[in-house]
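Summary for the steering committee. One of the milestones for this cycle was to obtain a three-dimensional model of the protein with pyridoxal-5'-phosphate bound, which we needed before selecting residues for the alanine scan. The sequence and ligand used are listed below.
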Amino acid sequence: MPATKKELLTNLNHNFNKLTPGGIREFDYKASSIPGIIKLTLGEPDFNVPAAMKEAAIASINANDSHYAPGTGTPALRKAIAHFMADRYNLDYDPDSEIAVTVGATEGIYASLSAIINPGDEILVTTPTFPLYMVVTKILGGTPVEIDTSADNFVLTPAKLQAVLAKHPHAKGIILNYPSNPTGVTYTAAQIKALAEAIKATNLVVIADEIYSELVYDGPHTSIASFIPEQTLILNGASKSHAMTGYRIGFIAGPQELMKPVSAIHAMMVTAASDPTMAAAVAAFDTVEGKTATLEMKEAYKQRRNFVVEVLKQLGFEMTTPNGAFYIFAKIPTQFGNDDLKFATDLANEGKVAVIPGSFFGAGGQGYVRISYATSMETLKQAMDNIAAFVNKED
Ligand SMILES: Cc1ncc(COP(=O)(O)O)c(C=O)c1O
């Protein structure tokens, strides 16, 4: 095994030094070694990929669909995505120039941020947040500006945005993620409209990560692009809506002039997504089977959410009922104080349930834990029994 030449170590991208070590995966990894642990840690749907999507991938392989696709994705998939966006969210995107298929929403985050960040640029990030936005912003030489939304039920208000902009008038972009990982909170149509009106008066590029848009339980999902499409890049994909995390299909939709650099950077990084999984995604986004599969999963998630919220509230956790995604962001019972890392560590070791400490998600997460309910009802029941025993023992 080769040892790295020592002198090279100072030649690496210095932006890496600005990163704080990844908390979630590390915590999950450590917890995995605890015998009998039940993990409610990761945002990974427990459902299998629905049959119609699997069959479409298999048919693509058998048809020797094995060559480089166009950089922005197969015409069939871009058309399917355009239909999906029109059907579900009443949004109008041209499949030829305003949609690019990415390798998961993860690559969409990298491609869209790469297209707008110059070294030193500030990017506004509402927190608690999916940590990748901060990591990628830093790697690209930008500076994330955290906006703590915990005092407003995890929603960014126009007044808060204006206060932040007064201090950061040159911010280049803002990342919004709703329904949110980690809070499960989403914006009502009125809330997002009011925020869009405030953003319209600025030159911020909005990166709207709407990967959980199909998992809104009560009421519709309203995209911010309904109000300010001219300055919005929407990120979405099949990972959460169709339990297709391993297929790695995401997409970006936005106005043509913004999409040009985004698509170019995407093609430079990955050339294109893979043919068989793009074929599967056509079935996900543009067939009755695809739509039905999502609705069935959503119903199951909703039941799980209702169950977990009810038990946790009885045990003294505080939360507003989350209306989307598959996370609950709960304030730990008062008798445990505010140290979420200690609480989560003790719960894992003694109660045998792993959840993620809220402070891993940035400002406003202290004193909370994130619980993923993307797992079976049977597992959730056992987990809640364990949490009850742990909490009641400490009383
Ligand atoms: C908010 C958010 N955006 C993006 C992703 C990544 O999605 P993908 O698996 O499609 O790359 C996740 C995954 O957990 C997420 O929670």
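Key point for the committee: The chain has a mean pLDDT of 96.
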